[in-house]
Design brief:
The chain is of the alpha/beta class and about 400 residues long. Helix content is about 40%, strand content about 15%. Strands 2-8-7-6-5-3-4 form a seven-stranded mixed sheet, sandwiched between helices. A three-stranded antiparallel sheet has the order 9-12-11. Strands 1-10 form a two-stranded parallel sheet. α4 runs parallel beside α5 and α12 packs parallel to α14. InterPro entries: Aminotransferase_I/II_large (IPR004839), DapC_beta/gammaproteobac (IPR019878), LL-DAP_aminotransferase (IPR050881), PyrdxlP-dep_Trfase (IPR015424), PyrdxlP-dep_Trfase_major (IPR015421), PyrdxlP-dep_Trfase_small (IPR015422).
Length: about 400
């Protein structure tokens, strides 16, 4: 067995299961689970229909690079969404089986362990745990950069010592952030690009929540930021997905786009990795990327839930509307683990302790005394949960 497997941490939901062990929630109350970031809205009919109508694709081996039509649909979507020239569909886009798979495998292909010092992969803190696991299994050392309220939940790059920058090969960024919902500004991107130019690391930009936002201000993307700053996509690769945008987490469909040289090597890796997307899934994905009406409807559903829930919770918790995503990153009046355990026991509402989404770094755990609340349940259930949380907090 690979000794690197022993370096992996339990996933947050394993920790949550252990936290709840021996707890019997109030049987008089309906369960409301707001801990898992799994979309619950209906999958659009156009995507299901496209899948059904292309089941004959199951009779053929898929190409690792995917179909020309799917890559073109993704390229055109990027151009429409971000107002930039369409990426070259033949060299700058690879369809992937969900961004999670691609984020992990990208690190395996990018990290070079042949040198005399151990390479570093930088991650925001709190973070999506795939970043950490990908770094560890690639043989790299994870380095965590705290994202705190005083920095608008953006990474504090001043926490990175020169010696660490010198060994850094890959930096994961997440905008809109999981769990904070914070969106990187153009100035944030300008500084990150300058650091990449100075130290030569690759930027892996996880943008899976980009289409869940409020109002007319769309989250800035990495490729868009590069274009606005008059630079190309050198050492920049972005990851996106249909899961949240189109309510198809089970479709396992996303894309990687950006630096053609890096993606050429990544494609070579993937031809051996055996992760080509089914032709049937490709057809359904193409339908999803080509339609925006269902995305607008999806955003409206989330906006209604945030409008109903956020003011209620703000009565008893330090919480506010995020820049984007479907999470609330709420401060707790007691420890986050005690809050989650007691809330589950007394109110049958499940939230995720923030400390489970972060690591101790620079003297603190930036997730401590916060919980992530995923507003994925129906509006009525989200309101019920909010009212129970208010009641719970008032009676602490």
């Amino acid at each position: 067995m690979s000794p690197r497997l022993d370096d992996l941490h339990p996933y947050p939901f394993q920790k949550l299961k252990a936290l709840f062990q021996g707890v019997t929630p109030n049987p008089a109350l309906k369960a409301v689970n707001l801990s898992i970031g799994e979309p619950k809205h209906a999958t659009p009919a156009l995507i299901k229909d496209a899948l059904i109508h292309h089941l004959d694709g199951l009779s053929a081996y898929p190409a690792t690079l995917g179909s020309d039509t799917l890559r073109m649909a993704i390229s055109q979507w990027i151009a429409r969404r971000y107002g930039i020239p369409a990426p070259d569909a033949s060299t700058q886009i690879i369809p992937v089986n969900g961004s999670r798979e691609a984020l992990f495998s990208f690190a395996q292909a990018m990290i070079d362990t042949s040198g005399s010092t151990r390479p570093v992969v930088i991650s925001p803190n709190p973070f999506y745990q795939i970043y950490e696991g990908a770094a560890l299994l690639a043989g790299a050392e994870p380095f965590y950069v705290n994202c705190l309220a005083q920095n608008q939940f953006q990474p504090d790059w001043d926490q990175v010592p020169e010696e660490v920058w010198q060994r850094t090969q890959l930096v994961f960024v997440c905008s809109p952030g999981n769990p904070t919902g914070a969106v990187a500004s153009l100035d944030d991107w300008r500084r990150l690009f300058a650091l990449s130019d100075r130290y030569g690391f690759v930027i892996a930009s996880d943008e899976c929540y980009s289409e869940i936002y409020f109002g007319e201000q769309r989250p800035l993307g990495g490729l868009e930021a590069a274009h606005k700053l008059g630079r190309d996509d050198r050492r920049l690769v972005v990851f996106s997905s249909l899961s949240k945008r189109s309510n198809v987490p089970g479709l396992r469909s996303g894309f990687v786009a950006g630096d053609a040289q890096l993606l050429g090597k990544f494609l070579l890796y993937r031809t051996y990795h055996g992760c080509a997307m089914s032709p049937s899934i490709q057809a359904a994905s193409e339908a999803g990327w080509n339609d925006e009406a269902h995305v607008v409807e999806n955003r409206a559903l989330y906006a209604a839930k945030f409008a109903a829930v956020t003011p209620r919770l703000a009565e008893v918790m330090d919480v506010s509307l995020p820049d984007a995503s479907f999470y609330l990153w709420a401060a707790t009046p007691i420890s986050d683990t005690e809050f989650a355990r007691r809330l589950y026991a007394e109110q049958h509402v499940t939230v995720l302790p923030g400390s489970y989404l972060a690591r101790d770094a620079h003297g603190i755990n930036p997730g401590a005394n916060r919980v992530r609340i995923a507003l994925v349940a129906p509006l009525e259930d989200c309101v019920i949960a909010a009212e129970r949380i208010v009641h719970f907090c008032k009676n602490l």
